């Protein structure tokens, strides 16, 4: 394995307000300032993968605006190859509006902007170019459904290991699971996926039962992120679910924790780790990331991940 990862997904700028509480319907909350950070689930995961030691290429789109130029500079500064990121005129760079409370919980609204204009043709071309290079293709679902399908289909056509981060869940994903990507939903996304695939009585099933049923029906491996409880791994064809616990940490901001997990997880798979071992590394990375405010500021480098794993094993 050469530890090469192609990431396909969204590039955003994140505008973050820290407030005393999250707003309810029709409610306004006020924080002291607005912080601007690089974002987008795919771009965040790409940064996490690069810091975890992977060689990363990125496929996506930004607007021909200051936010887009800044986003590309940030990705480039992490050593990420941005050749396959389109710069589109007359469209804004994707923007996420985020409110964070003192416990680190958040609410997020996203304006897709250029992410909605990522084309299937561009994605197919990027995956094909990476076919003899990539050890893993990581796909996030904040881009158009057709572009997501192109990424998963083309990866399968070239026998490339594919990780599908199902945030958000789209109805089109039901057809894509037959290609057996490794899917990485959180608990609410797992329920949506199971319901979309016709798993009966989802309200009475445990997370373990639902993940196992989803894996049995699709043949895909399922890795469910559980926040402070770690992750649950169901590897296709191997039987019982495996729990990977998370260490207790002081949480500052959970924004980007899932993206950190996915990036570190994909980097570990590209480096030859098993799904369970890669999930363990992903949990370690995400646990370190939540100690910082902002999706990327706390994303750890590979040496910090190694230390956390070593300390956890003692």
TrEMBL record:
Species the sequence originates in: Gordonia terrae
Gene Ontology CC: cytosol
Protein name: Ribokinase
GO MF term (any one): ribokinase activity
The keyword Cytoplasm is assigned to this record: yes
SUPFAM superfamilies with a match to the protein in the record: Ribokinase-like
Pfam families reported for this sequence: PfkB
Pathway where this protein functions: Carbohydrate metabolism; D-ribose degradation; D-ribose 5-phosphate from beta-D-ribopyranose: step 2/2
């Amino acid at each position: 394995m050469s530890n090469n990862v192609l990431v396909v997904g969204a590039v955003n700028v994140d505008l973050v307000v820290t407030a005393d509480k999250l707003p309810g319907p029709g409610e306004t909350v006020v924080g002291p300032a607005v912080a601007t950070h690089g974002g987008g689930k795919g771009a965040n995961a790409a940064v996490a993968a690069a810091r975890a030691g992977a060689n990363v290429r990125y496929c996506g789109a930004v607007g021909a605006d200051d936010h887009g130029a800044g986003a590309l500079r940030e990705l480039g500064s992490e050593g990420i190859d941005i050749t396959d990121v389109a710069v589109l005129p007359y469209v804004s760079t994707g923007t996420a509006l985020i409110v964070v409370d003192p416990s680190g919980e958040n609410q997020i609204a996203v304006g897709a902007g250029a992410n909605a204009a990522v084309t299937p043709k561009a994605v197919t071309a990027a995956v094909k170019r990476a076919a003899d290079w990539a050890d893993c293709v990581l796909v996030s679902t904040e881009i158009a459904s057709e572009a997501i399908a192109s990424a998963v289909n083309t990866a399968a056509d070239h026998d490339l290991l594919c990780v599908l981060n199902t945030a958000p869940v789209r109805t089109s994903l039901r057809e894509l699971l037959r290609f057996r990507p490794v899917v990485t939903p959180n608990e609410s996304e797992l329920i949506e996926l199971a319901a979309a695939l016709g798993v009966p009585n989802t309200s009475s099933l445990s997370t373990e039962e639902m993940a196992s049923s989803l894996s049995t029906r699709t043949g895909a491996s399922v890795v469910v992120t559980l926040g402070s409880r770690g992750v649950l791994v169901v590897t296709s064809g191997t039987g019982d679910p495996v729990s990977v616990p998370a260490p207790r940490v002081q949480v500052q901001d959970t924004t980007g924790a899932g993206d950190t997990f996915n990036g570190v997880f994909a980097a570990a798979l590209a480096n030859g780790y098993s799904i369970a071992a890669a999930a363990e590394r992903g949990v370690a990375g995400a646990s370190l990331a939540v100690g910082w405010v902002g999706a990327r500021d706390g994303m750890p480098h590979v040496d910090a991940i190694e230390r956390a794993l070593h300390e956890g094993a003692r």
